Amino acid sequence: MKATIIFLLLAQVSWAGPFQQRGLFDFMLEDEASGIGPEEHAPELPELEPLGPVCPFRCQCHLRVVQCSDLLGLSFNSISSVDNGSLANTPHLRELHLDNNKLTKVPGGLAEHKYIQVVYLHNNNISVVGTNDFCPPGYNTKKASYSGVSLFSNPVQYWEIQPSTFRCVYVRSAIQLGNYK
């Protein structure tokens, strides 16, 4: 008798189709198998957009802090700006990968980083590069020199960039400019 009841319960479960959520409040709607469709219960709800920015893969985000230790790669994230002071909490930053985003200017605070050596900013929307964006004012005030700065595929006119902008770059061949679409 017990086996028959279990078999009947399993048979009922096997008749049910897989759950397919179509909207946020589907769990409140009655089963479509009852013959009453969701349209008869409530008006169709529009698809909801994400409530805010999405945290980059493998990073930890809390309020306005994005923690990506030992990943140092923020490429392809649709980042449009980096607030002044955002990089201050990473004093030993050596590489910054912000390529293939939507930046309109060089992130503030790079000049103050004593250890940064590589900055990837290619394929963004950067149209102006200032003389103090990468290096602090004056000469020889940065502890580590840059070994790589990529700014290619940005709308910046490379002939408008002052030569002193890259005064703390180790070798001039480390600077990549041009080739804007």
Automatic annotation (TrEMBL):
Gene3D superfamilies, A to Z: Ribonuclease Inhibitor (3.80.10.10)
Keywords noted in UniProt: Extracellular matrix, Leucine-rich repeat, Repeat, Secreted, Signal
A GO term from the CC aspect: extracellular space
PROSITE patterns on file: LRR
Membrane-spanning segments: none
Record keyword Cell membrane present: no
Cross-referenced InterPro entries: Leu-rich_rpt, LRR_dom_sf, SLRP
First and last residue of the signal peptide: 1-16
Subcellular location(s) per record: Secreted, Extracellular space, Extracellular matrix
Domain of life the protein comes from: Eukaryota
Family per record: Belongs to the small leucine-rich proteoglycan (SLRP) family. SLRP class I subfamily.
Protein's job: May affect the rate of fibrils formation.
Subunit structure: Binds to type I and type II collagen, fibronectin and TGF-beta. Forms a ternary complex with MFAP2 and ELN.
Protein name (Swiss-Prot/TrEMBL): Decorin
